[in-house]
Amino acid sequence: MARIVITNGTIIDGTGRDPIERGTVIIEGDRIASVEDRAHRGEPGDTVVDATGQTVLPGLINLHDHAYRKRLRYVTPGVSSYREASNRLVRESPTYLAVLSASNLLIELRAGITTTREVGAGYDISVTLRRMINEGLLPGPRMFVAGQAISMTGGHGYWMARQADGPDEVRKAVREQLLTGVDHIKFMATAGLARYPQEHPQHVEFTEEELRAGIEEAHKHGKKTCAHAYATEGIKNAIRAGIDSIEHGVFLDEEAIHMMIERGVDLVPTMSGLYRVAEYYREAGDQATCDLIYDLALRPQQESFAQAVQAGVRYGVGTDSAGEMVEEMLLMQEAAGISAMDCIVAATGNAAKIMGMEDRFGTLTPGLAADVIVVNGDPLSDVRALRSIVHVIRDGKHFVRDGELYL
Fold first, then answer.
1. Which residues of the chain have pLDDT under 50?
2. Which CATH number does 3-58+362-405 carry?
3. SS3 (DSSP) at 48
4. CA gyration radius for the chain?
């Protein structure tokens, strides 16, 4: 069997262990065969990658993504506002959104993301894209999908969600999503900023009883659950109802954090999503809206994240619509003072644990999926080195070689 031998690089395995200097990662087929603390010349027939001066890591895992919305990061001030661009997307056809999503996923793969947890797309877009990537018809990250998020009537993101009211209807909505073959279920537990001031970040939407019915149904079928949750009481409703992860977690308090630790609930903060939108308005000359986003949500979110980290809540890296992985890590460092190694583990080994997939991928461990990236420089000195992608390998397939897509 042909092998890929990545040698002479500094290896960060995603577990938090100390790096291996001038080590070697050997890939056989779609699996990691070995991780060695020595350089390796390879054998006849091997593809040898000399990673001298570079760092070898597991592929990155984006725990909170909306593939069809990623281009909102690049809205041009003066051409249209962020909200106008977002509303325009909602009116596009499913075909347009599917092709746009495929294009965006290719960009994500190029950025070193080998696994993405899609947490809500309309129609059957994400389910279909997952199938096409799995069948090798499209290049992209490995996808785990929620299909349509579930919201109350008129709730956050209702325009692309399955709307449901009352415990029985929420349970039915979950069953409908399960029928399409989704990997996990996403609930809109609270409002957000999408339609502010019609919705407010402190508004609670689903009741605890509604969430419990849906979560119980998902868990019966072995599916994990996550909740869009800003408002404090909405976060607590979701935790009491049995949620697996809180997305955003803008207004955590001491009780909510204690509940998360006690029940093993994870946090995916996605600060970069709000940050990018706020900065868009600053660039557009609308300082008032920028300040509003910071005051209403982003600063409280940073404070909540810092408190959660200090208390010992497990967390992962997610970008939401407009965010970016390295940007998210920098914001995590700014908010909570965590190390670059903590950021990398949050985007690799811990992310896989949050998904319940640590026995499949997420670390450079023999027997796991061969998801490997190579970057120039030392991300432990500056996580921005993770933007300098040289190689991307997913399931043993070399998608990026020497910085260029290889399809």
1. none
2. 2.30.40.10
3. strand
4. 21
pTM: 0.97
C-alpha distances in angstroms, 54 versus 373, 388, 391?
Answer: 10, 10, 10
CATH code of the domain occupying 60-355: 3.20.20.140
Q: Please report, for the chain, the start and end positions of each structural domain, with discontinuous segments joined by +.
A: 3-58+362-405, 60-355
147: amino acid identity, one letter: G
Q: Do domains 3-58+362-405 and 60-355 have the same CATH topology?
A: no
Q: Give which of 393, 323, 316 is closest to 355, Cα–Cα.
A: 316
Q: Where do we find the tokens 């000195």? A: 381
- Residue 71 has a pLDDT of 85
| Per-residue pLDDT tens digits for 343-365 | 999 999 999 999 999 999 999 99
Summarised one tens digit per residue, pLDDT across range 102-127 is 999 999 999 999 999 999 998 889 99
Q: Tokens for 76?
A: 């041009």
